[in-house]
Amino acid sequence: MTVGLCTIQLSLPGVHSLKEKRGVLKPLLHRLRAEFNVSAAEVDRQDAWQAATIGVATVSSPDADVHGALEGVLAWLERTQPHVFVTDWRIEVI
Asked: Distance (Å, rounded) from C-alpha 83 to C-alpha 72?
């Protein structure tokens, strides 16, 4: 079994309240789950309006490319979410 975890720091420059932040993150996390069959949640910086940290995790068989799948999540975020900017990320494979 291979476990992959990606921690992603996001900048949300157009957001001016926690309610707006929730309105941006909730559909984004839902689409990540549906598009990539991963677990995704906001894991830090819940009180910051214009910043978020999300965690994305996946479990697969040993021969699957878990690292590549998580890189696909990052590429999808940068390609399809023009109002959200990835400022930092880290992938761990166990």
From this structure: 18
